[in-house]
Amino acid sequence: MRTISLTLMAMTMMFFFGCNPEKKAENPFFTEYLTPFQVPPFDKIDTTHYMPAFTEGIAQHNAEIDSIVNNPAAPDFGNTILAFDKSGKLLTRVSKVFYNLNEAETNKQLQAIARELSPVMSKHSDDISLNEKLFARIKAVYDKRLEMNLDSQQLRVVEKYFRDFERQGANLPADKKDQLRKLNAELSMLALTFGENLLAETNDNFKLVIEDKKDLDGLPQGVIDGAAETAKEKGMEGKWVFTLSKPSMIPFLQYAKNRDLREKIYRAYFMRGNNGDKNDNKETVAKIVKLRVEKARLLGYDSYAAYVVDENMAKTPANVNDFLAKLWTSSLPVAKKEAAEMQKIIDRDGGQFKLHPWDWWYYAEIIRMEKYNLDESELKPYFSLANVRDGMFMVATRLYGITFEKRTDLPVFQKDVETFEVKEADGSHLGILYLDYYPRDGKRGGAWCTDFRSSGWENDKKVDPVISVTCNFTKPTATAPSLLSWEETTTLFHEFGHALHALFTEGKYTRTAGNVPQDYVELPSQVNENWAGDPGVLKAYARHYKTGAAIPDQLIDKIQKSSLFNQGFETVEYLAASILDMDYHELTEPTDLKVLDFESNAMNKIGLIPEIIPRYRSTYFAHIFGGGYAAGYYVYIWAAVLDADAFDAFKSSGYIYNKELAAKFRKYCLAESGNDEGMKQYRKFRGQDPSIDALLKRRGLK
Predict the structure, then answer these.
(1) Which tens digits make up the pLDDT trace of 433-490?
(2) How far is the C-alpha of 45 from the C-alpha of 34, rounded, in Å?
(3) Contacts of residue 432, Cβ cutoff 8 Å, sequence gap at least 6
(4) What's the 3-state SS for 535-546?
(5) Label partner for 65 (CA 20 to 30 A): which of 502, 540, 576, 579?
(6) 265: domain range?
(7) Domain annotation covers residue 299
(8) Are residues 135 and 9 in the same domain?
(9) Looking at the structure, do residues 448 and 396 belong to the same domain, yes or no?
(10) Could you tell me if 525 and 501 are in contact, meaning their C-beta atoms sit under 8 angstroms apart?
(11) What is the pTM of this model?
């Protein structure tokens, strides 16, 4: 009923706002933002503003396309390619706010609007990509591009747009175009459904509520305090609440002695979307996979994986599979040794049970203590969120000369969000950075980097970016600030690497500026993680939140010595998910899948041990069924080869803050990353092809 009433309300608003200039003027999206640095005026944006802005944005975009199509002048770069590249300004403005907030600060109203928008936006996208007259003009420029005296970047933009239209079905006959429209609309809605179901399963439908203090046995005091704070927030003061967000769940799995409760919370985690209720995702996954096969075949590809990877550095699914197989062969024996070692501890301590997936974190923590005398709770006091944030800023300053000035005069979309002005070494403005740290009910899980405005050019002037990093980190308590785990620390450095890519991006054309293959995307983020664990860098930023003392050498030594610890598990669970992703998307015939059977067969085929499950099982694999990583989850480890090789260049130079190398990396791999194919840009920085050896050595797999 709520969706229907919102539909009628939205239709009324579209009519009313379209006819009433006064109401239109009240909508922040219809004018330039009157805020510092023209950031979105979150304090003035209301839910009722979205649908009118989307409607007007689509109308303006359509008018711009019509102007291109009906231009009587012969197609050229300026009147066709550039005009198309710069079209849709209002639609882009409202989309960047709405879709980012629907991920980070959603509610029932935003979700209802998203459902309304899904078919509308799918149709609008198809109306453009399947516009025969528009494609004819683009093709006319493409066919004569070598005769038009275009520079290298103009040629690249022409070729990219022509390729885009081909891949989006521009050459299909009319009946096939209609079929493609239906597939795109249905896939768009299914992805939305998948995400909504997963959000409900993660944030709404499960809480581990502990009333007996004995059930907290083994947990560090900071974890207990955090659970008490969560209980208080949820109206259960005096109890302790653990959720399925990783900052809450993982410490419980690491330290809780109560094995039954460890199983309960982990089972709730890996059964998300698989409980036979209204949020069950099995049928949604099966439909998505089937429709993607149909779409790929319609566009002339054997499989959806072939369609996706064709645009990547890997080029073919066979190359991806060979790459994953080499890593699997190296990592599975290591994981088996780790499992055997854990089983010995269970037997030694009289456990009388076989190791299960919900035991892994607990016994890994025991081994970490016994082998390396390293307790994660001993590390955390040195990694307060503020110190880690300042540490990553320091690294960026020393590498690139940029600085970060905290701002308190910018509107934010949530009270805990911090904002910073980023400046070049000469003090000139580079961009704005939002940092959104903590879990909440309206935020999806994980961590990501996005933008509210991309770097670009407009009217021959550079447009400065507005970037946002969103995380789900351990919250502060009444007695301590947010203290990060080592994984959370490297995650912040990782997402900040994406932010640097976005901040440094240069280029006059929307289509190519910062636009890189999917298996290149994670290079800027993953390479930045390397500085987080360097001993000299740790000494500078890892300081005890109470005393201010720098992290002692013995703890740094423990971190270094334990860096190879548990790498079999971490690599295998990741590779298992990557292989599952490829298996789904290498299907060549539309099939009504039994999702659990398919998943089980895929894992049995590669010999995944029962003590480990894929990092993401099918029903909560948001990267591939709710996001943009279908047939592309492998890209993290593909980029890891690049990032390990790139950081090896800094280490081999004898100085990890080598400014000459940093300048080359910024220029070729960040600022100009979209200027040429990914591997060519990497070679410009490195002077050679990357080697897999640095990655295998770093993970202890060689």
Answers:
(1) 999 999 999 999 999 999 999 998 888 888 999 999 999 999 999 899 999 999 999 9
(2) 13
(3) 37, 39, 407, 410, 419, 420, 421, 422, 464, 465, 466, 467
(4) HHHHHHHCECCC
(5) 502
(6) 206-270
(7) no
(8) yes
(9) yes
(10) yes
(11) 0.91
Task: Say whether both 166 and 216 belong to one domain.
Answer: no
Determine, yes or no, domain membership for 348.
no
Amino acid at 226: G
Residue 545 CB neighbours (<10 A): 17
Rounded distance, CA 550 to CA 531, Å?
17
Which amino acid is it at 456?
Answer: G
Based on the domain organization, do 448 and 547 belong to the same domain? yes
**Chain centroid offset of residue 170 CA:** 29
Two tokens, residue 684:
């410009």
Q: Could you give the residue ranges of the DSSP H alpha helices within 419-566?
A: 486-504, 523-532, 535-541, 553-561
- In total, how many domains does the chain have? 3
Would you state the structure tokens that stand for residue 433, as one six-digit string?
């950075």
Residue 139 in tokens: 């093709």
Same domain, 129 and 221: no
Q: Can you give the CATH number for the domain in which 545 is found?
A: 1.10.1370.40
Q: Which residues is 659 bridged to in the sheet?
A: none
CA angle centred on 74, ends 73 and 75, rounded to 5°: 110
Annotated catalytic sites, by residue? Answer: 495
Count Cβ neighbours within 10 Å for each residue of 143-181 and write b for 16 or more, e otherwise: eebeeeebeebbebbbebbbeebbbbbbebeeeebebbb
- By the 8 A CB rule, do 299 and 169 touch? yes
